[in-house]
User: Which sequence fits this backbone?
């Protein structure tokens, strides 16, 4: 939550983004972070499955 506030303040103060724009950017950042976690989890499962096939 604190990270979201820091990002929002930075967008408004330093980049002059309006509040609706901040909301969109924050949501997109969160969606990208979730996608990254999903991909990392998938890659871990793939590594484990590959390792099991070799054994």
Assistant:
């Amino acid at each position: 939550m604190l990270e979201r506030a820091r990002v929002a303040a930075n967008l408004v103060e330093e980049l002059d983004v309006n509040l609706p724009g901040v909301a969109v950017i924050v949501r997109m950042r969160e969606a990208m972070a979730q996608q990254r976690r999903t991909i990392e989890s998938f890659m871990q499962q793939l590594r484990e499955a590959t390792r099991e096939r070799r054994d």
Remarks:
- The CA atoms of residues 12 and 18 lie 6 Å apart.
- Helices lie at 2-15, 19-54.
- The chain has one domain: 2-54.
- The chain is about 90% helix and 0% strand.
